[in-house]
Amino acid sequence: MSQSTGAPSLFDDGQIGTGGNNNSQSQAKLQAINLIDLLHDGFYLVFLIRNQYVPADAQQFREKILNLLHQFEQQAKKLQFSADDIHDSKYAFCALIDETIVTQQDPSYFNLQNAWLISPLQLSLFGSQLAGYRFFEILEQLRSRGKERLAAL
Hints:
Elements: H1 22-30, H2 35-38, H3 40-50, H4 58-78, H5 83-102, H6 110-118, H7 121-126, H8 131-144
């Protein structure tokens, strides 16, 4: 007996998060009211990694994350979020996923970590490997600008 959970379908074998009707998922994303809603699938993915989901193919996994970020950016633009808010949200998510992957202690993450350390998302998308440090600088800048940058907070 198989039921659709509506979970994201970002996984190698399709067993976890088989996803529901793509059309209804697309419409739900268009109805999102904030950038966090648009990154829901990404946060779910972080949850799975922290709970022992290890992708079989690091390159394929990376491509799926890049696709997720591209879709996030397109949806955020459609919803008229500012370019700065979109950029800062992507930066924060890349910092989160990079740190989540490289800090896993289980030996089953070894191959994924090796592949990831060669080219973390923050380096390939933003040209820097200092996201763990820069994240807090950006956060402080956002906080100091108040309501103007509330969407990125």
